[in-house]
Amino acid sequence: MKDLFTSSLGRLRIAGFLEGASLLLLLFVAVPFKYLAGQPQPVQMLGPIHGALFTWFVINTLYVAVEQGWRFKTTTWKVLLACMIPFGTFYIDWYLLRHTSAKKE
Question: Which pLDDT tens digit goes with each residue over 7-21?
Fold first, then answer.
């Protein structure tokens, strides 16, 4: 668990979780408030947060790919594609990232 917060791969996993969770909040809380209750404020608040988390995930992915020596054709593109598919970050964490051993920093 300690490695989750101290390694770059752990930080990537955290970024993926937060990005996915922000999308869940945006889609299932903020958007219904906007269209069913006429309250656009939650979307206006969560939209930029989700965008920042998305950007953080992409930057972290590229950093970890270089650090871990990932080949673009085999690993990096899968992780980058995952963040563009709704809830893909949860899948890629379960499918790939949790099984990848981090190099000692």
Answer: 888 888 899 999 999
Find where tokens 């995952």 sit.
Answer: 82
The predicted-structure confidence for 13-57, as pLDDT tens digits, reads as follows 899 999 999 999 999 999 999 999 999 999 999 999 999 999 999
d(CA 5, CA 71): 24
Domains in the chain: boundaries: 2-99
Which string of DSSP letters, residue by residue, matches 39-104? Answer: --HHHHHHHHHHHHHHHHHHHHHHHHHHHHT--IIIIIHHHHHHTTSTTHHHHHHHHTGGGSPPPP
Distance CA 105, CA 7 (A): 7
